[in-house]
Amino acid sequence: MLLVTQNPAADIVATRLFLRTGSRWEPQEKAGLSHLLAAVLTKGTDQLSSLEIAEQVESVGAKLSADTSTDYFLLSLKTVASDFQEILSLTGQLLRFPSFPEEEIELERRITLQGIRSQREQPFSVAFEQLRQQMYQHHPYALSILGTEASVAQISRTDLQEFHQTYFRPDNLIISIAGCVTLEQALEQIQQVFGDWRAPSTPLPTLSLPILTSYPQNTITPQETQQSVVMLGYLTSSVNHEDYSALKVLNTYLGNGLSSRLFVELREKRGLAYDVSAFFPTRLDQSQFVVYMGTAPENTEIAIEGLRTEVERLVNIPLTPDELQVSKNKLLGQYALGKQTNSQLAQIYGWYECLGLGIEFDTEFQNNIAAVTSSETLDVANHYFIEPYLSVVGPESFVSSFSTSQS
């Protein structure tokens, strides 16, 4: 699949190569596999060393990187138009013929393990990790894309090669290009790099993921820190569900920016929060709607009460016409600002195609947001915001007293 957005205003071409894989496709015992693969993919091919690759990219001032997410794997490149063919050719070699040098695997493994250990020292990361594990249990979304110490330690070069062989194939590839290039030029250059790449006869694996059901619970972890982090989580819908747009509007109203309901009510008026917000990530499978706060340890119980009150308010009181319109305007304005550069355009159109939505979702999303009504947000809130999962991390003395009061 090739998507081309012509933008001759600047002599730059940005390209995103998406593969329908990522941490969602990993076996749980090999969690972190796609992250480790992304880290070593640019470190060698059958013909080039890591240094030679870096020199080729940097000699023309280009940018080239690999990354992974829950629902996709991505190679990103940006260069001036005159160097596009050269860097695209290099990207094709990396995508098709990575060598996975053992020394690079071990180096990136150590860096990943350090990252996992560092996450355990950050109260927000700890709180979010335990919230994910409560909500998703045996689903791949339960874990960080970095994986766990145990899983990363046992990933072998063979594992990387097999994962690459399974998912890195032309019938699983989406190429999104934006910039100073025509469709005809892009087709010709893509044909030169990938024209001889043939898909294997074996079909792509079919995932069998657990069905997610909400069983709210509390998880409280003591950690020596200057603040408590409180999170409430609600299992919600995927991007393909009809409730997606209303949830996006509710998320914007509740936790997006300094004018959001959570910020104004819990930080500005009550002075409870060091940090307070909400997020609702776009996911192929059921997503999560999360509200969180960083607060003084002695305010832990009040913070939980405050967050619950604000979410429950959405269940009982419809948004006013002004609240609804302001939220829509904010969401659509930020969406428009996120499509200003060639890199942003290549990213969003390729991402939509990778999710199975098609580039027409760009227009559909904006129309759907504009069409959301107050009664719709009230219905959606009543459907999802029933009883939250609770995750708390804070100093042991306060967490212990809080645990006792909750039992």
From TrEMBL:
Gene3D superfamilies: Metalloenzyme, LuxS/M16 peptidase-like
Enzyme class: hydrolase
EC number assigned by the record: 3.4.24.64
Domain Peptidase M16 N-terminal: 4-148
Protein keywords: Hydrolase
Pfam short name (any one): Peptidase_M16_C
Span of domain Peptidase M16 C-terminal: 155-331
Source superkingdom: Bacteria
Protein name in UniProt: Zn-dependent peptidase
GO MF assignments: metal ion binding; metalloendopeptidase activity
